[in-house]
């Protein structure tokens, strides 16, 4: 809905064209925004309130796989779907741990963290970045050795566009079984959804590391009686066979009542189709498409360290009943496992041990107009306020890849640095301080910036 349009969109095929764009931006005083996939929450990669140009790296999407060393170089204009498809074309037992939406751009997803369905067993995407190529404010093309360890640390979870323009990542691939198991199981309020969601919180981060059970909460019309109800949708990936999964679930979460008929054995690349919502026999080629649905949405995030009591969950149900059917949801993504094995300062992404799960609040709508937008956005803000007693505190943390411009907006009149400190500590905790020092060293004039970029000390 922004009235300001880019003056030019640069779609480089070569690194030299990015260098030229940086030079021209400096000469003309026109701000650069950098875009890879276009899923950027709040649209900061393609929206600005001042004259700007977009460097869209969609044409820089080559991927080279080294199966012998289990590594890959992937350019930042590639999408996750393209990456998964290319890996699977080379091996049935190599994979990569990242998100479920195939049209997400590699550049933004990985530089901001990159959580996915294998994160409890293999961590997040950026835990597996071993080298990178970045073009800095002076137009130099840097790799890990030439950029130094401080800058290499910063771009692995601190957001790449604060420090330069990321061109490529070198990643360490992971080894997986040839056969995995998935399931989607729905339980309504009439089927004890409240009790199941409450129990899930005591299980999700402690269950077998090879198993990730994600939870979606929505209101919808039940096919059983046609009445509106709340649905708890349990969506899971297990790195193994169905019989082993059933044994684990029977021991750790028997209340769900999972049976063999609920489960499907498949390959990893087939699971990428499954979690992206495609039918079972869809061609794998669909993963390489860049098209995404045009809609309006608002997202927020939280981290939960203590289980939400049942009365707290019932308050959530009331909020979901307020919104239109199937337009709003809360997504609970479990932590634990491999995520706990790293210290908070290993990389800028600080959300490690002590988190049971992350909450993603999401509402979307299709009708344009300020009144319609205001109604839905205010819903997320009221829900977010309601959840304050049940989530992390001091700071109330948030996931950088679910960027939220509401954070820090109540600090009008403060300097930009003080405003940045509000969201900076929520996204990065104490790592924000180190990110500021790196920014001050590599881009002291703050050439690469947006409304929530890392500021320099000056």
Secondary-structure blueprint:
Blueprint: E1 8-10, H1 15-28, E2 31-35, E3 52-56, E4 63-66, E5 71-75, H2 80-90, E6 94-95, H3 106-111, H4 119-122, E7 129-135, E8 141-142, H5 144-147, H6 149-154, E9 165-172, E10 174-175, E11 180-188, H7 193-203, E12 211-221, E13 228-238, H8 242-252, E14 263-266, H9 268-275, E15 296-304, H10 310-322, E16 328-334, E17 357-365, H11 370-386, H12 416-428, H13 431-442
Parallel strand pairs: 1-3, 2-3
Antiparallel strand pairs: 4-5, 5-9, 6-10, 7-8, 7-9, 11-13, 11-14, 12-13, 12-16, 15-17, 16-17
Keywords: Alkaloid metabolism, FAD, Flavoprotein, Glycoprotein, Signal
Organism: Forsythia ovata
Family: Belongs to the oxygen-dependent FAD-linked oxidoreductase family.
CATH architecture descriptor text of the largest domain? 3-Layer(aba) Sandwich
**Discrete helix count:** 13
Strand content: 15-25%
CATH class of the largest domain: Alpha Beta
Helix content: 25-40%
What are the segments in which pLDDT stays under 50 over at least 5 consecutive residues? none
- The structure class reads alpha+beta
Mean pLDDT rating: 94
Distance between the termini: 33 Å
Sheet with most strands: strand arrangement: 14-11-13-12-16-17-15
What's the helix-strand series? EHEEEEHEHHEEHHEEEHEEHEHEHEEHHH
The number of domains: 3
What's the story with the biggest beta sheet?
7 strands, antiparallel
Within the CATH hierarchy, at the fold level, what is the topology of the largest domain?
Vanillyl-alcohol Oxidase, Chain A, domain 3
Q: What does the radius of gyration come to? A: 22 Å
| Strand count | 17
Shape: globular
């Amino acid at each position: 809905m922004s009235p300001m349009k880019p003056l030019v969109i640069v779609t480089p095929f070569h690194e030299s064209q990015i260098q030229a764009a940086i030079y021209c931006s400096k000469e003309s005083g026109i701000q650069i925004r950098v875009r890879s996939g276009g899923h950027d929450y709040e649209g900061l990669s393609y929206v600005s309130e001042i004259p700007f140009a977009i460097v869209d790296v969609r044409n820089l999407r080559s991927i080279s796989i080294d199966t012998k060393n289990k590594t890959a170089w992937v350019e930042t204009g590639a999408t996750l779907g393209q990456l998964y498809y290319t890996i699977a074309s080379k091996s049935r037992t190599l994979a990569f741990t990242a998100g479920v939406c195939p049209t997400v751009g590699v550049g933004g997803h990985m530089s901001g963290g990159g959580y996915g369905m294998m994160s409890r067993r293999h961590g997040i995407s950026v835990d597996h970045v071993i080298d990178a190529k970045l073009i800095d404010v002076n137009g130099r093309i840097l790799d890990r050795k030439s950029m130094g360890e401080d800058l290499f640390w910063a771009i692995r979870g601190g957001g790449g566009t604060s420090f330069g323009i990321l061109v490529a990542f070198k990643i360490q691939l992971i080894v997986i079984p040839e056969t995995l198991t998935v399931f989607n199981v729905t339980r309504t309020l009439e089927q004890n959804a409240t009790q199941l969601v409450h129990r899930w919180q005591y299980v999700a981060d402690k269950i077998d590391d090879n198993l990730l059970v994600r939870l979606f909460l929505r209101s919808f019309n039940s096919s059983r009686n046609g009445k509106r109800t709340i649905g708890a949708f349990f969506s899971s990936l297990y790195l193994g066979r169905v019989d082993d999964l059933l044994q684990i679930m029977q021991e750790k979460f028997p209340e769900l009542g999972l049976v063999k008929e609920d489960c499907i054995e498949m390959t990893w690349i087939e699971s990428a189709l499954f979690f992206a919502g495609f039918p079972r026999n869809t061609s794998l080629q669909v993963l390489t498409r860049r098209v995404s649905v045009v809609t309006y949405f608002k997202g927020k995030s939280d981290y939960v360290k203590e289980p939400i009591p049942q009365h707290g969950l019932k308050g959530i149900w009331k909020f979901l009943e307020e919104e239109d059917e199937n337009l709003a949801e809360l997504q609970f993504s479990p932590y634990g496992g491999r995520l706990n094995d790293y210290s908070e300062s290993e990389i800028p992404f600080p959300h490690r041990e002590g988190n049971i799960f992350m909450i993603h609040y999401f509402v979307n709508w299709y009708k344009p107009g300020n009144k319609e937008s205001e109604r839905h956005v205010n819903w997320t803000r009221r829900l977010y306020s309601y959840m304050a007693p049940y989530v992390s505190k001091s700071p109330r943390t948030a996931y950088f890849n679910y960027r939220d411009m509401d954070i820090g907006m109540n600090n009008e009149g403060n300097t930009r640095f003080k405003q940045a400190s509000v969201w900076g500590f929520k996204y990065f905790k104490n790592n924000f301080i180190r990110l500021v020092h790196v920014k001050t060293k590599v881009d002291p004039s703050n050439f690469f910036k947006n409304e929530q970029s890392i500021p320099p000390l000056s």
